[in-house]
Specification:
heterodimer; A: 1 helix; globular; B: mainly beta; Jelly Rolls; 6-stranded antiparallel beta sheet
């Protein structure tokens, strides 16, 4: 199982959320909002399990 | 006289292309690097291949030039941390996932399901029984098969044919089609070989327990081929360029090929860059970067304080630079590796 220690939305040019900045297994990754992406699928699995919260974009 | 029909009986089946469902089966492509010290479970190493492991056993993986005739490379696994007493959740080995689109021709889960044959070259410092498992995406259907390493440190070609699975749900889109496990040790999640089972099994319960028991034991593999039918044909060698492009559907690394430039634009505080992928990726990829980059607005240059991933699709990726220069709305800017081969941009759409 991936160890996700940080998750925060990143906004695109139009101000909408376009990716999640996440630290997964110690590496900083930018994960697209696409459930066929294995990192995003795992992030959402942990969000739904209540063990992870995605912070709003800065 | 015009040729109206090719007599297939006169052709050697090894002349047919696209038989092999495995990408990078000859272990040539290594975009992430060639040596991996104690990679984590599911951390990709040589292209398309990751370890799976649980428990005390830890392995190292590298691209090796120890290879059988007609092959340049193999994948070498070395025991890094031994597991001398396998518990019920201790297991490990190598994992390869066939994309559903590619596996769809097998028709698993249908009455028209076909047999498949796996072949590969293996070499180990420990003789004995090893195993391979085939699973569906949900890990609710599994089939394990034994094979034997007969001689120490000697290349041996193995051929394994498994029966068709007419049951279960098998993914036929861009998801996980067939989850293939080369089991090197298994204290749990193993099963009786040579039949389809309902459940999650990563190998046979005959798998030896001695390989993982000693630090420094080695296992090499190359020439991996999975094909439809009950016959193992010769390995389908593809060009390096062909294999690289197939790999880039799942992982693309930009950089490391000299000092490459990308052109972008800026608003008042951020630079925006887009990069077109060399092939359509399996899914929108995860972005990451490493090494050093320089940002340049044609007046000054500096090192960006951050490079963030933006909107990605299966065809292109966007990333943003912050800091390093004074950004002006509408300006054209450049980003390039701070020194030759120093930086890289990575896009990961693996299964």
């Amino acid at each position: 199982m991936m160890n996700v220690t940080l998750a925060q939305y990143i906004q695109g040019l139009d101000g909408t959320n376009v990716s999640v900045k996440a630290v997964i297994d110690g590496e900083t990754l930018f994960v697209p909002l696409d459930l066929s992406n294995r990192h995003y699928a795992e992030i959402m699995r942990q969000v739904e399990a209540g063990t992870l919260t995605i912070q709003e974009a800065e | 006289m015009a040729v109206s029909r090719i007599d297939e009986a006169g052709l050697n089946v090894t002349q047919y292309g696209n038989r092999n469902l495995i990408i990078n089966g000859a272990m040539q492509v290594a975009q992430r690097g060639t040596s991996f010290n104690a990679p984590a479970d599911a951390e990709y190493t040589l292209d398309r291949i990751s370890p799976f492991r649980n428990g005390a056993g830890v392995i190292d993986i590298e691209q090796s030039t120890v290879a059988p005739e007609s092959f340049q490379y193999s994948l070498k696994v070395t025991v890094d941390t031994a597991d001398t007493s396998l518990g019920g959740t201790d297991f490990g080995g190598l994992r390869y996932v066939v994309e559903g689109y590619d596996a769809s021709r097998i028709d698993f889960g249908k009455s028209s399901a076909k047999q498949i044959t796996l072949s590969f070259y293996a070499r180990s410092s420990v003789t004995g029984i090893y195993s391979v498992a085939f699973r569906n995406s949900a890990a609710s259907r599994s089939y394990a098969v034994d094979y034997t390493i007969d001689a120490v440190d000697t290349w041996e070609r193995k051929e394994i044919t498994i029966t068709a699975d007419t049951s279960g749900t098998w993914v036929t889109d861009s998801g996980k089609g067939i989850d293939l496990r080369f089991c090197l040790w298994g204290g749990g999640y193993t099963t009786t070989p040579n039949s389809w089972n309902n459940g999650n099994f990563i190998g046979s319960n005959n798998t030896n327990t001695s390989w993982i028991a000693t630090v420094g034991n080695t296992f090499y593999i190359t020439g991996v081929q999975l094909e439809v039918g009950d016959t193992a044909t010769g390995f389908e060698h593809r060009s390096y360029g062909d294999e690289l492009q197939r790999c880039q559907r799942y992982y693309y690394r930009y950089g490391g090929n000299g000092r490459e430039n990308l052109v972008g634009g800026s608003n008042t505080n951020t630079g925006y860059f887009a990069i077109q992928f060399p092939t359509t990726m399996r899914s929108a990829p995860t972005f990451s970067n490493g090494g050093g980059f320089t940002i340049n607005n044609f007046t000054s240059a500096g090192t960006p304080s951050d490079i963030n991933g933006g909107l990605t699709s299966i065809n292109s990726g966007e990333f943003q630079t912050v800091g390093g220069i004074s950004y002006t709305l509408g300006n054209t800017i450049l980003v390039y590796e701070a020194s030759t081969n120093s930086g890289n941009l990575k896009f990961d759409a693996e299964l």
